[in-house]
Write a structure and sequence with these properties.
Layout lengths: L27 H11 L8 E4 L10 E5 L9 H9 L9 E4 L3 H13 L3 E6 L4 H9 L3 E5 L3 H15 L2 E3 L5 H17 L5 E5 L4 H10 L4 E7 L4 H8 L12 H4 L6 H5 L6 E5 L1 H15 L5 H11 L11 E5 L7 H4 L1
Parallel strand pairs: 2-10, 3-4, 3-6, 4-5, 7-8, 7-10, 8-9
Antiparallel strand pairs: 1-2
């Protein structure tokens, strides 16, 4: 995972897009450094070309399969990048998570010899909660959604001095998430457009750091998790109500500042329905016998639903970013 080029980005200054003072976007060089740190700790996941007729589309689709990470999602990249990039105190590392980031932090902490304390909202599916204890993490279940778990995690950090691990708004985490896009472009440098699911925006911000102005970048959300769409409409991140099928992985109440700082390189934001996400899950199973969770299939849903229609000859890629779901909900 040492392929990304750490050369200068050559991008416009963040202030040109009305960035918040002091918030600088993660860079391509940051992602390259993260790639070196996580090498040997996370998987270099495969890239699959889905034939045009496999998904009923007019052209093939390139899919980066980060649902095949050891914890079932891309978030192990960011967690490992953080824990190999900063000093971890004896009090350990604390994270709030709807499931996937908690699994990632617990996995990375165990591999690296650190204590992990995870705060999880009770809206998370059992499939994401059961493995946390198996990985040796101390688990606290909090009523509500991600924001509620985050508040409890922050209180624990304040009283113990533990390291705070943020699921999507921490530079080392975002840089780690960007390694998925860097790997994709090493194998397919001719990609024209990349579709990325968005919750708090860590995966999107990491992708933006890698692609810059070279690839059209589109964020995809569900109607129940519209943090990016709301931020773009308001001109700044705002709180949104979250819920629905993809809330456990995309249910951030507010877009992260790092994702907002990356907006000069995000070309569009699309919304898909829950029915369209569920259909994308079924389509991926039928085409490749892969089971993606709702958040993991959200980017693909933009294509299979026709919300995004590629131009003739356009080379489109998607990040299939998570697979922590009961398979019976997809193939039963």
């Amino acid at each position: 995972m040492t392929d990304p080029d750490p050369a200068a980005d050559g991008r416009p200054a963040p202030a040109s897009h009305g960035r918040q003072s002091g918030v600088q976007p993660v860079t391509r060089a940051d992602v390259a450094a993260a790639a070196v740190r996580v090498d040997g700790h996370v998987r270099r996941t495969p890239v699959l070309t889905l034939e045009a007729d496999a998904l009923g589309r007019s052209a093939p689709v390139v899919a980066k399969l980060d649902l095949l990470q050891p914890t079932g999602s891309f978030k192990v990249r960011g967690a490992t990048s953080l824990l190999t990039g900063v000093a971890v105190p004896d009090a350990g590392v604390v994270a709030a998570s709807g499931g996937n980031f908690g699994l990632a932090v617990a996995y990375a902490a165990r591999r690296l010899g650190h204590r992990a304390i995870i705060f999880v909202p009770d809206s998370s599916p059992p499939a994401k909660l059961r493995p946390l204890a198996d990985l040796g993490a101390e688990v606290h279940v909090v009523p509500g959604y991600y924001a509620d778990a985050l508040a409890a995690a922050d209180e624990h950090v304040a009283t113990t001095g533990a390291l705070r691990a943020h699921a999507y708004d921490q530079a080392e985490v975002v840089a780690g998430q960007g390694t998925a896009t860097a790997e994709l472009l090493v194998e397919h440098p001719d990609v024209d457009t990349l579709l990325v699911a968005v919750g708090g925006g860590g995966l999107l911000a990491g992708a933006a750091a890698v692609v810059g102005d070279d690839v059209r970048l589109i964020g995809v959300e569900t109607h129940g998790t519209p943090a990016l769409t709301a931020a773009r409409a308001a001109g700044h991140p705002v709180d949104v109500e979250v819920g629905g099928l993809a809330a456990s992985s995309l249910g951030a109440r507010r877009l992260g500042d790092l994702a907002w700082a990356a907006q000069p390189w995000v070309d569009d934001a699309l919304l898909v329905t829950e029915d369209e996400v569920a259909q994308a899950q079924r389509d991926l199973w039928a085409a490749a016998r892969l089971v993606a969770e709702p958040g993991g299939a959200t980017a693909l849903a933009a294509l299979t639903s026709g919300r995004y229609v590629p131009a003739p000859g356009e080379r489109v890629a998607v990040l299939v970013c998570g697979g922590n779901v009961d398979p019976a909900t997809v193939v039963g």
